[in-house]
Structure formats: structure tokens, C-alpha cells
Amino acid sequence: MSLKGVELQIAIPKTMDAGKLSEQHQQNVIQQQLNAHEALKKELERKQTTVNDSEPTDKISDDDQNKGNQDSTQKQNHQKKNNQQEKEAEHPYKGHFIDFSG
């Protein structure tokens, strides 16, 4: 496919315009990425410099201590119930020795 002189007069300027447009598009993409990176950096710095509020933990009331004791006894009762259920669910002969000699 060969191009004639008249066609070249139209094709060459259009390729220059297309090249400029693609370069501008590429520069816009790079600039957007830089802006996003800077925004992320600022957000991270802001999060690092802010102080998180926390509740004071040095005061423990008697109610909390009693509740902790109740929780531990409830856990022990639950474990006992589970152990009893496991014992009830034992297979009648599985795992026991059966003598077939006769």
C-alpha cells in the first residue's frame, strides 16, 4: 500500500495531532496517580497524628469482677454438660474387646 503525495499531506499532520493527544492523555493519567498518592499520604499522616480515645481501664468495679467469676463458672458447667453428653453418646460395643473364640 503506497501513499500518494496528496494523501501524505493529510496523513502526516493527523499523526502529529494523534501523538500530541496520546501524550496529553498519558500525562493526565500520571498526574492523577500523583494526586491520589499525595492524598493517601496526607490521610496516613493525619491518622498517625490523631489520638485514639480509649476508656480508662485502671478502675475495675466489683460488679465486673463478680461477672467474671460467674462467666468462669458458667463455662465450667457447660464443659461438664458436654462431657456428660459425650459419655452418654458412647457406642455400646465399639472400642470394647469382644471374645469370639468359642
Q: Care to give the gist of this entry?
A:
This is RNA polymerase sigma factor. The protein has a domain at 8-48. It has helices at 5-49, 62-88.
Question: What order do the helices and strands come in, and which of them pair?
Answer:
Elements (H helix, E strand, L loop, with lengths): L4 H45 L12 H27 L14
What report would you give on this structure?
- The protein is mainly alpha-helical.
- It has a domain at 8-48.
- It has two helices and no strands.
- The protein is elongated, with a radius of gyration of 39 Å.
- The model has no long low-confidence stretch (mean pLDDT 76).
Principal-axes geometry comes out as: elongated
Would you report the number of β strands?
0
Helical coverage, percent range: over 70%
Please state the CA-atom Rg, rounded to the nearest Å.
Answer: 39 Å
Uncertain runs: none
Span of the ends, CA to CA: 101 Å
The averaged pLDDT comes out at 76
Summarize the helix and strand pattern as letters.
Answer: HH
Bin the strand percentage. Answer: under 5%
Oligomer: single chain
Helices, by number, come to 2
Q: What structural class should be given to the helix and strand makeup?
A: mainly alpha
Largest sheet: none
Key traits:
102 residues, mainly alpha, 2 helices, 0% strand, elongated, RNA polymerase sigma factor
